[in-house]
Amino acid sequence: MKVLVTGASGQLGRAVMDLAPHSVQVTGVDRQDCDLVDVDAVRTMVTDHAPDFIINCAAYTAVDQAESEPELARAINADAVEAIASTHSGRLVHVSTDFVFDGTSSRPYRPDDARNPLSTYGRTKAAGEDHLRERDLLIRTGWLYAAGGRNFVRTMLRLMSERDELGVVADQVGCPTWAPGLAKTIWGLIGAEADGTFHHSDAGVASWYDFAVAIQEEARAMGLLQNSIPIIPIATADYLTAARRPAFSLLDSSKTRDLLGDGHTHWRMNLWHMLRAEKHLG
Question: Is the pTM of this model over 0.85?
Answer without folding.
Answer: yes
